[in-house]
Amino acid sequence: MDPGPCGPLPGRHRPGGVIAAIGKSARVVVDSDPCTGEARKFATAHDLRRAFGQRWAHKVPAATLVELMRHESIETTKKFYVGENADATAAVLWAVTGREPLGNALGNTQETEAPKGLKI
Which of 33, 43, 44, 64 has its CA 20 to 30 A from that of 97? Predict the structure, then answer.
């Protein structure tokens, strides 16, 4: 370690350890035992990174997300962040169109009238 003006500089892994300690102290649970509900894992810096990627995945093109996440390949970005959350994707579409989309699971989006009694 190179000495700084106030002594040795912390190692590059120290911030991650500090964030993990904060996650544990704050009891921010990211994984728990399905049977007992007991916490198995608390938030770490990597959990914050994944949350960042998930938030931005619906706001920017995949190529931009690759840069934001500093992935070497767009395949990594696609694998973990593109198309992962169908509910969030639907919510974005509904917000853009101002109504629930008509169509079916096969992708038929031809404009048709909604069935009687269905509010759009």
Answer: 64
Give the list of residues 6+ apart from residue 58 with CB closer than 8 angstroms, or none. 88, 89, 92
- The tens digit of pLDDT for each residue in 60-116 reads 888 999 999 999 999 999 888 877 667 777 777 778 877 665 555 555 555 555 556
What is the biggest distance separating any 2 CA atoms in the chain, rounded to whole angstroms? Answer: 74
Q: Is 36 exposed, middle or buried (0-12, 13-18, 19+ CB in 10 A)?
A: exposed
How far CA 35 is from CA of 22, 59, 90, 95, in Å, comes to 26, 36, 31, 37
pTM score above 0.85: no
Q: Which long-range contacts (CB under 8 A, 24 or more apart) does 35-40 make?
A: none
